[in-house]
């Protein structure tokens, strides 16, 4: 909510006047600017936090996130490395470093960082998910399936992981497993549009059963009859 963010900025600005030497205040202000998409302002406040307290880890991670969102992946990588010099066991810094490497298509380095994040925090669901994506890009399909399954096991409501796992099974022509995955996703959430799209895709493309596919696409339109959804359903036939 932009109104709430604006209020948070006003409060943080007031706090910087009250406590001008407090690095945490500048970090908080940087984080709020980041949430508003005002990355240059976020960066300047993160940098001020680091000036005041060079051993404060959070602003380095904040800088990395801001740079990454701006497409400045090398700058992001440098900041995450600085964070990890301060604390080599920060799972989030390893995870974000993995994301930055992934944005540069440096999948081997990304894999290494995701594994470190998982080693530190085995419940790090997004690390499992993104590790699966890296394995998929490298055509290491069994490893990808394993990591998607771990993401789902640790968070059974993680809809995107079900969808990506189902699509991978489709691509490998393991259609029954693809269908089972979509059905499991729908047990969690009956309104998960991508699961119906996946079922429609399986029926239409892989099994040449247009009638069954149309039933699934109609369910999508019942949930969300907006133009974007109609386009998504139409594209599934193309």
Q: How does the overall form come out from the CA principal axes?
A: elongated
- Classified in CATH, the superfamily of the domain at 1-87 is Tetratricopeptide repeat domain
Strand percentage lies at under 5%
* End-to-end C-alpha gap: 37 Å
Compute the gyration radius: what is it?
22 Å
| Unreliable stretches covering 5 or more consecutive residues | none
| Overall CATH architecture of the domain at 1-87 | Alpha Horseshoe
Give the biggest beta sheet: none
Descriptive notes:
- It is a single chain.
- By secondary structure, the chain is mainly alpha-helical.
- It has a domain at 1-87: Tetratricopeptide repeat domain (Serine Threonine Protein Phosphatase 5, Tetratricopeptide repeat), CATH 1.25.40.
- The chain is 79% helix and 0% strand.
- The protein contains 14 helices and no strands.
- The chain has helices spanning 2-18, 23-35, 39-52, 57-69, 73-86, 91-103, 107-120, 125-137, 141-154, 159-171, 175-188, 193-206, 210-223, 227-235.
- α3 (39-52) runs antiparallel to α4 (57-69) and α11 (175-188) runs antiparallel to α12.
- The longest helix has 17 residues, at 2-18.
- 42% of the residues are buried.
């Amino acid at each position: 909510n932009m109104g709430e963010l604006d209020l948070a900025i006003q409060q943080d600005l007031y706090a910087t006047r009250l406590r001008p030497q407090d690095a945490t205040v500048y970090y908080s202000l940087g984080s709020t600017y980041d949430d508003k998409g005002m990355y240059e302002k976020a960066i300047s406040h993160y940098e001020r936090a680091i000036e005041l307290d060079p051993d404060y880890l959070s602003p380095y991670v904040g800088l990395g996130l801001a740079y990454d969102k701006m497409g400045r992946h090398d700058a992001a990588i440098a900041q995450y490395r600085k964070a990890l010099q301060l604390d080599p066991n920060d799972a989030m810094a390893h995870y974000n470093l993995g994301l930055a490497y992934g944005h540069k298509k440096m999948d081997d380095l990304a894999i290494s960082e995701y594994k470190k994040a998982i080693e530190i925090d085995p419940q790090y669901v997004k690390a499992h998910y993104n590790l699966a994506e890296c394995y998929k890009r490298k055509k290491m399909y069994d490893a990808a399936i394993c990591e998607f399954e771990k993401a789902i096991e640790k968070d059974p409501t993680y809809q995107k992981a079900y969808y990506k796992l189902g699509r991978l099974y489709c691509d490998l022509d393991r259609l029954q497993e693809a269908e089972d995955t979509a059905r499991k996703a729908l047990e969690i959430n009956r309104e998960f549009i991508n699961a119906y799209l996946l079922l429609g895709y399986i029926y239409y493309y892989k099994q040449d059963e247009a009638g069954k596919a149309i039933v699934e696409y109609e369910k999508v339109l019942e949930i969300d009859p907006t133009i974007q959804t109609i386009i998504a359903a139409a594209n599934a036939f193309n």
